[in-house]
Each structure stands twice: as structure tokens, then as C-alpha cells.
Amino acid sequence: MRYLIMALVMAVGFAAPLAAQDINFGNNDGEWASDGECDDRRFYGAGMAATVTWEYVGQDAADCQTLYEAGVIKLWDLATSVAATQCQAIDFGDDSGDYPQDGECDDRRFEGLAVAHILLPDYVRKDASDCSRLCAFGVIGLREY
Predict the structure, then answer these.
(1) Which of 143, 131, 136, 142 has the alpha carbon at shortest distance from 102?
(2) How many CA atoms lie within 13 A of 111 on its CB side?
(3) DSSP string, 9-72
(4) Which pLDDT value is given to residue 21?
(5) Which residues are CB-contacts of 141 (< 8 A; sequence separation ≥ 6)?
(6) What does the pLDDT look like over 29-43, one tens digit per residue?
(7) Which among 27, 32, 92, 117 would be 20 to 30 A from 57, CA to CA?
(8) DSSP structural state of residue 131
């Protein structure tokens, strides 16, 4: 029994560092690298930059790894997000954004296969038609799930 408890404590204690070793955090070549915020769109959480884009994936290693290992951000996963997202309970807003009804969701609260290249805070709840349809079909889910 004592060995089982030790094994559980070790598994829990080493889970985050072991998982971090499996992630390729990339380099620090991004425009906003080493500014204390993670700019890599593969992650989500309180330590993320306000604007995220695919351009900075793998280019903010120091910030992202530090925040990930501290438990401030997590690696985003489509299947987990879609399963946790209850589309019918979301206020999608309206279509008052710059790019409504273009087949992409521009709302930074979402991530997935049909989400815009650049996600800005200004577009939250301003692309309702696209985001609600794509959510209902399970190709996008909430970034914060």
C-alpha cells in the first residue's frame, strides 16, 4: 500500500514536467517572445496574449514553457474542447464584426478547424452566424473549456 501511495504522489508530482517534455515549445524568434505572455495559439489560459495568430506558433518558447509548467496555461485540444462546449448555452452575439458570414469564426473565444487566422479581442460576440453554425457542427470549440 505504501508503494502505491508513493507511486501516486510521484505520478502527480511529475505529471506536468513530463508532459512539458513532450511538447515542442519551439524557439524565441517571435516578435513578442519573452514578454511574459504566451503568444503561441496552441495554448489557452490566463497567461495568453490578447491577440493570437498562427504566425507565432512555436516562436515564444520561454514564455509558453514557463507558464505551462506553472499551470497558468494549458495545451488546447480540439476533441476535449468540442466535447466540453455546450453551443446552445453560448451567447454568440450578432454579426456586427468586419467579417461576418464568411465561413470562419472570428470570435477569439473559439478555436478549431474553421477559426480565423488572427483572433482579436474586438471580434468577441460579433460573428454569430459563422460561430454558432460551426460550433453546432463540432468543428470549433471554446478556447477556455
Answers:
(1) 131
(2) 22
(3) HHHHHHHHHHHHHHS--B-S-STTTTSSSEEETTEEETTEEEEEEGGGTTB-HHHHHHHHHTTS
(4) 73
(5) 78, 80, 81, 82, 83, 84, 85, 110, 111, 112, 135
(6) 999 999 999 999 999
(7) 92
(8) H
pLDDT > 80? residue 93? yes
- At 20-71, the pLDDT tens digits run 679 999 999 999 999 999 999 999 999 999 999 999 999 999 999 999 999 9
% of the chain exceeding 70 in pLDDT = 86
Indicate the residue type of 7: A
- Give whole-number Cα distances, 44 to 10, 36, 95, 99, in Å: 26, 14, 25, 24
What is the Cα gyration radius of the chain? 17
CA dihedral sign, ordered 116, 121, 123, 124: positive
The label of the residue with cell 513532450 reads 22
- Residue 102 DSSP one-character state: S
Given a contact cutoff of 8 angstroms between Cβ atoms, the answer to whether 51 and 119 are in contact is: yes
